[in-house]
């Protein structure tokens, strides 16, 4: 008793009975107001950055090709000339920078202004059959020309290859478009199958959660047992051969270690220990596993009662798209702010007559240089001027935009978690289910969260954002110093990255449970995070068991949905499913893997969205269950709100007199 008392003092005292508490608090006040004001001011600044980018930026520099005079193709005066023509295809071979992807798109230093002389390479010496791609005229790979001095079909092929090998967009883009045009209908059907499978899996858990968890646990035990057997067989064979690690020595070829007996002995020991731990857990934690299964079944019932919660991720997805699209457009406009700058350039500065030409100095593309002593001298695009207040602050504005991207995305995710927690908590704390469940639990939770707890969500999102920004900075430094750092520096950098990764995981876990407590009790972020953490630490064994059982079950569900859709897509798009009828035929595709991978990726997104709702439901009901155990004792005045299955597993019951309306 003394040990238990000390534990309660360390992790706080159990929640006390409150006769006025009947689910999520309705009479609440605004929380974390200072952070709410700070968040709104930041959003206003984020909007101001977008307006500045809109005024000074010009995305046409990226969207439309530009000729050597600086004029855009396809707009303005050149509206009837939408394509950029490369007059000298050999410049794409001779230049050391064959293809330059700059802020104005694909750049190949060839002039397009027709002047007086072919000698200066300012007019085309020949014309090739070509086709438009990305606003540019790309020659056909089998193009041939009449015999000209110094020009051969091999040189032409090299020039074309210099273009298409770097971009390779002409054929691939057309084929990809054709494949999507042929298969989009079937991709939508595959996504519909994924949606139905995800929904059925969650709804059927109320019936098959227990047997399914048992089968999965037995499957894990079986896999470990086979691993032990295989490791023993490999160890026995290598032991008889005398293959030892002392003979191999140290090597960076990791596959070589599979041929020594010590490797398989270590694997045998590790797998045997894991098998033993899992068996002991099944023996001593079987009661808690039964509680976890009962909570999963209860979560399935809650989702079935509030089907609108399953489609809430669509709203979250739209908000995330808005956040990402706004950041992307702002970054694009900021990147294209400033006037274009042109410099002198020649394909070969070592030729006679080019020594005295001031290369890389500014020039005017309208007045092309006329210098017969330097062959191929021209005025080409280099970049955008960095003068001006906006251009000098461009880096700071981009950093502000990245911070805005992370903060808004984390806030949107926090909003979804808190709203779903409020809806599912109203289900648990309804004494008579489903009669006492509110009519519109999801909309009520959304209104409460947005009205009272915007600041608390922004507080939690800001903490997570700072950790993520620190990880991004660390990754950037690691990438810059990767070629120069010594092994000790790499080890230290790896330790820092690992620590930040663990910190981010912990912050996400803490925030998730803090949002649940905010949705129920309406307190600020710090108090909610503390109460949630203390409650979980007082029931740490139950937390671990439920978390692992839920992870195992949801992993199997995702594997079932994604794997099922992937297998069906593979057999259908490769034409291996026969006998479907004349109206149902596999489309003729250039790349069958393209619609297949699209279907698999879409199925994963759908399954992840559905199962994230179910996972939030399980976590919310679990916290409510722990609160229920601490607040109530099953008496007439303090009845339990948990389901009959949980009461039976715990050996408890509500002592309600016969005929009482609250009888469960």
From TrEMBL:
<feature type="transmembrane region" description="Helical">
    <location>
        <begin position="212"/>
        <end position="229"/>
    </location>
</feature>
<feature type="transmembrane region" description="Helical">
    <location>
        <begin position="184"/>
        <end position="205"/>
    </location>
</feature>
<dbReference type="GO" id="GO:0015871">
    <property type="term" value="P:choline transport"/>
</dbReference>
<keyword id="KW-0812">Transmembrane</keyword>
<dbReference type="GO" id="GO:0016324">
    <property type="term" value="C:apical plasma membrane"/>
</dbReference>
<feature type="transmembrane region" description="Helical">
    <location>
        <begin position="452"/>
        <end position="474"/>
    </location>
</feature>
<dbReference type="Pfam" id="PF04515">
    <property type="entry name" value="Choline_transpo"/>
</dbReference>
<feature type="transmembrane region" description="Helical">
    <location>
        <begin position="549"/>
        <end position="573"/>
    </location>
</feature>
<dbReference type="InterPro" id="IPR007603">
    <property type="entry name" value="Choline_transptr-like"/>
</dbReference>
<keyword id="KW-0472">Membrane</keyword>
<keyword id="KW-0050">Antiport</keyword>
<feature type="transmembrane region" description="Helical">
    <location>
        <begin position="405"/>
        <end position="431"/>
    </location>
</feature>
<keyword id="KW-1003">Cell membrane</keyword>
<feature type="transmembrane region" description="Helical">
    <location>
        <begin position="33"/>
        <end position="56"/>
    </location>
</feature>
<feature type="transmembrane region" description="Helical">
    <location>
        <begin position="514"/>
        <end position="537"/>
    </location>
</feature>
<protein>
    <recommendedName>
        <fullName>Choline transporter-like protein</fullName>
    </recommendedName>
</protein>
<comment type="function">
    <text>Choline transporter that plays a role in the choline-acetylcholine system and is required to the efferent innervation of hair cells in the olivocochlear bundle for the maintenance of physiological function of outer hair cells and the protection of hair cells from acoustic injury. Also described as a thiamine pyrophosphate transporter in colon, may mediate the absorption of microbiota-generated thiamine pyrophosphate and contribute to host thiamine (vitamin B1) homeostasis.</text>
</comment>
<keyword id="KW-0325">Glycoprotein</keyword>
<feature type="transmembrane region" description="Helical">
    <location>
        <begin position="593"/>
        <end position="626"/>
    </location>
</feature>
<comment type="similarity">
    <text>Belongs to the CTL (choline transporter-like) family.</text>
</comment>
<keyword id="KW-1133">Transmembrane helix</keyword>
<feature type="transmembrane region" description="Helical">
    <location>
        <begin position="264"/>
        <end position="285"/>
    </location>
</feature>
<feature type="transmembrane region" description="Helical">
    <location>
        <begin position="311"/>
        <end position="335"/>
    </location>
</feature>
<dbReference type="GO" id="GO:0090422">
    <property type="term" value="F:thiamine pyrophosphate transmembrane transporter activity"/>
</dbReference>
<keyword id="KW-0813">Transport</keyword>
<dbReference type="GO" id="GO:0015297">
    <property type="term" value="F:antiporter activity"/>
</dbReference>
């Amino acid at each position: 008793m003394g040990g238990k008392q000390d534990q309660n003092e360390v992790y706080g005292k159990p929640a006390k009975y409150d006769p006025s508490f009947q689910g999520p608090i309705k009479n609440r006040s605004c929380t974390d107001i200072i952070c709410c004001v700070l968040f709104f001011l930041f959003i206003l600044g984020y909007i101001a950055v977008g307006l500045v980018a809109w005024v000074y930026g010009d995305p046409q520099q990226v969207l439309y090709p530009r000729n050597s005079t600086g004029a855009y193709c396809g707009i303005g005066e050149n509206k009837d000339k939408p394509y950029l023509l490369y007059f000298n295809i050999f410049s794409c071979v001779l230049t050391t920078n064959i293809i330059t992807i700059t802020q104005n798109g694909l750049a190949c230093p060839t002039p397009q202004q027709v002047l007086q002389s072919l000698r200066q390479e300012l007019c085309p010496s020949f014309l090739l059959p070509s086709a438009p791609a990305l606003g540019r005229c790309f020659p056909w790979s089998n193009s041939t020309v009449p015999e000209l001095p110094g020009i051969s079909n091999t040189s032409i092929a090299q020039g074309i290859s210099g273009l298409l090998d770097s971009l390779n967009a002409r054929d691939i883009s057309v084929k990809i478009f054709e494949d999507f045009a042929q298969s989009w209908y079937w991709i939508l059907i595959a996504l519909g199958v994924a949606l139905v499978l995800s929904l059925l899996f969650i709804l059927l858990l109320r019936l098959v959660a227990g047997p399914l968890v048992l089968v999965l646990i037995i499957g894990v035990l079986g896999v470990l047992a086979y691993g032990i057997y295989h490791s023993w067989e490999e160890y026995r064979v290598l032991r008889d051969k005398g293959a030892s690690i002392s003979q191999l020595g140290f090597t960076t070829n990791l596959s070589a270690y599979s041929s020594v007996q010590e490797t398989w002995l270590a694997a045998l020991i590790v797998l045997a220990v894991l098998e033993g731990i899992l068996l002991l857990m099944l023996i001593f934690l079987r009661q808690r596993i039964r509680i976890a299964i009962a909570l999963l079944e209860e979560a399935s019932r809650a989702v079935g009662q509030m089907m609108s919660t399953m489609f809430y991720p669509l709203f979250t997805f739209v908000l995330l798209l808005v956040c990402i699209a706004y950041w992307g457009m702002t970054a694009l406009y900021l990147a294209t702010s400033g006037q274009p700058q042109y410099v002198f350039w020649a394909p070969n500065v070592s030729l006679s007559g080019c020594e005295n030409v001031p290369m890389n100095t500014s020039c005017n593309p309208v007045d092309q240089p006329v210098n017969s002593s330097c062959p191929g001298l021209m005025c080409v695009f280099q970049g955008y001027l960095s003068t001006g207040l906006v251009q000098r602050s461009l880096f700071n504005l981009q950093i502000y935009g990245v911070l805005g991207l992370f903060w808004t995305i984390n806030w949107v995710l926090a909003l979804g978690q808190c709203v779903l927690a409020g809806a599912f908590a109203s289900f648990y704390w309804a004494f008579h289910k489903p009669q006492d469940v509110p009519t519109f639990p999801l909309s009520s939770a959304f209104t409460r969260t947005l009205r009272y707890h915007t600041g608390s969500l922004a507080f939690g999102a800001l903490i997570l954002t700072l950790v993520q920004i620190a990880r991004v900075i660390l990754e950037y430094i690691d990438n810059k110093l990767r070629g120069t750092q010594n092994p000790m520096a790499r080890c230290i950098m790896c330790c820092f990255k690992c620590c930040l990764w663990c910190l981010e995981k912990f912050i996400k876990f803490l925030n998730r449970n803090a949002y649940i407590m905010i949705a129920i009790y309406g307190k600020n972020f710090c108090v909610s995070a503390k109460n949630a953490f203390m409650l979980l630490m007082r029931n740490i064994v139950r937390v671990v068991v439920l978390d692992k059982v839920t992870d195992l079950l949801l992993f199997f569900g995702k594997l079932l949905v994604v794997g099922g859709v992937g297998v069906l897509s593979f057999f259908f798009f490769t034409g291996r499913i026969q006998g479907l009828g004349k109206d149902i035929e596999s489309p003729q595709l250039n790349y069958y893997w393209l619609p297949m991978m699209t279907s698999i990726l879409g199925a994963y997104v759908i399954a992840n969205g559905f199962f994230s709702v179910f996972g939030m439901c399980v976590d919310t009901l679990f916290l409510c269950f722990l609160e229920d155990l601490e607040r109530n004792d099953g008496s007439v005045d303090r009845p339990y709100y948990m389901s009959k299955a949980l009461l039976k597993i715990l050996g408890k019951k509500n002592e309600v007199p016969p005929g009482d309306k609250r009888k469960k």
